[in-house]
Amino acid sequence: MKTIPQSEFVAEATKRFGPKARNWQFVCPACGTLQTPQQFLDAGVSEDKVRTVMGFSCIGRYTGQGDAGIAAKSKGLPWDRGCNWTLGGLLRIHTLALILDDGSHSPIFELAPPANAAPCPAESQSHAESQARHSGECAPETPA
Prior knowledge:
By secondary structure, this protein is of the alpha+beta class.
């Protein structure tokens, strides 16, 4: 299990995906789905709730995907719609935990690799590009 201070995690997420946390990409350890806090908001999850579940619960818990994502991954099938996994359960399959200011540890999903965070298209964009921006398929460019 890797551990990292919360401040270092935030710095790395900001480096990869920009300063807006809603654009940070996490990878569910159970189904492999890339997801952003923005996707939770788009699924109707309140901002307060998103703060407690981003990087902790898979988007599929809020979009009705259930066990389908875990089943697909176990069969080696591609899957990108989430599952019902949460890090608060009995099984511990996560590989990363944050070290909080008080010294306690909090499990969290890994960040998506930088290669998965292609820059978003310019503001004048097609409907498909707009959907990509809001689905977490891209992240804002970070200033050099």
